Amino acid sequence: METEKEKHIVFIGAGSNIGNRKENLQQSIFMLAELPHTSISGVSRIYHSEPLGMKEQDWFYNAVFQVLTTLSPQSLLNMCGTIEERLGRAKNHPKWIPRTLDLDLLYYDEIVWNDKNLVLPHPELPNRKFVLLPLLELANPVHPVLKKTTAELLASCPDRSEISPLDEIELIVPGKIVNRKS
Q1: pLDDT in tens, 116-134
Q2: 101 within 8 A of 15, measured Cβ to Cβ
Q3: Would the pTM of this model clear 0.85, i.e. be above it?
């Protein structure tokens, strides 16, 4: 039997700007929770975010999920890709295009990883308010390369895009009662 000590703490950024954005995020939570030896331990509020790169597209709903898992970083990345595809994302998608779902591994414990398929921490993390704001709701981890907390990264973030929390929309975490205070 596995204990919580054996599980890794992973933060996953999630975004959607096609279809029912809230439902796409919600379904990704349910699918992540169904992965072997994996549970969802926290979910940020949803943020309404201006798109980066290609501006002529619908705005995103973004959130960050805190996940506990025994899966390896590569296995979790592959399973996130499968979830994206199951929710309608094309397998080989160009950067900056609209998407039903985007799941990015932001942090996997304090691991620093760099290969052709995966870079940890996520290389764009310090440059994206739509990731830093929701991440800070869940935790204030120290970036293992830059040696700065999430709050420090947010304070120096070059991203000037518009972003606002959607307090009226909540995501359900399987097996948890969410009682968010205003």
Answers
A1: 999 999 999 999 999 999 9
A2: yes
A3: yes
